[in-house]
Write a structure and sequence with these properties.
Layout lengths: L2 E2 L17 H14 L4 H19 L2 H12 L8 E2 L5 E2 L19 H21 L6 H13 L17 H9 L10 E2 L1
Parallel strand pairs: 1-4
Antiparallel strand pairs: 2-3
Helix pairs in contact: 1-3, 2-4, 3-6, 4-5, 5-6
């Protein structure tokens, strides 16, 4: 299964019925997380953190995990970066106000959960800017806001100075594709 390029309005992106389960998506990405230097314990703690944040904050667990894979490949020791607005972002979800542990692996559940909670709260804020409904359309639009802070409703691949393929990439991840599928593009 190759990587598909999606663009246009949210309606041009795949429906939730095509998304894999959280377990399927997570299992497909375990080897990539381990290749970052994560320990097996780190990977297990990411699972725990995603489930807890999904329940506590009210965000789809598959979406949380796919943001993690897009932003950090699940690398708990990823450093901080700067968003298009010049603000520092860090942690598994590269979110503002998230703790970061550059170069460190073998983190505690509390440290990993803090990163996932910060990113999930940020994404929930994007959902609330829209209509806060758990639909594919709202999620895709909120993903554009998460990445760029702006949204062109007619083209979610308009990066507004951020990553143009961000929403498309996560749509692929939600369907069970991984980074190794990127080289095998489908039209």
């Amino acid at each position: 299964m190759g990587w598909t390029h999606y663009s246009g309005p949210a309606s041009a992106f795949p429906p939730m019925s095509t998304w894999k389960t959280f377990e399927q998506i997570f299992n497909a990405n375990q080897s990539e997380m381990l290749q970052t230097g994560d320990t097996h314990e780190d990977v297990g703690r990411i699972w725990n953190a995603v489930e807890a944040a999904a329940k506590e904050i009210g965000v789809e667990e598959r979406v949380i995990f796919c943001i993690i894979m897009q932003e950090s490949t699940g690398n708990v020791g990823i450093g901080t970066t700067t968003d298009p607005g010049g603000k520092a972002t860090g942690g598994l979800m590269q979110a503002e106000e998230s703790p970061a542990f550059p170069g460190k692996h073998g983190l505690s559940q509390a440290q990993i959960s803090a990163m996932v909670t910060a990113g999930t709260k940020h994404f929930k804020g994007n959902l609330k800017q829209l209509d806060d409904k758990d639909t594919a359309s709202t999620i895709y639009r909120a993903l554009r806001l998460y990445n760029s802070g702006k949204i062109n409703e007619s083209n979610l691949s308009d990066g507004e100075k951020a990553t143009p393929s961000y929403v498309s990439d996560i749509a692929n991840r939600l369907q069970g594709r991984t980074n190794k599928d990127k080289g095998r593009d489908e039209l």
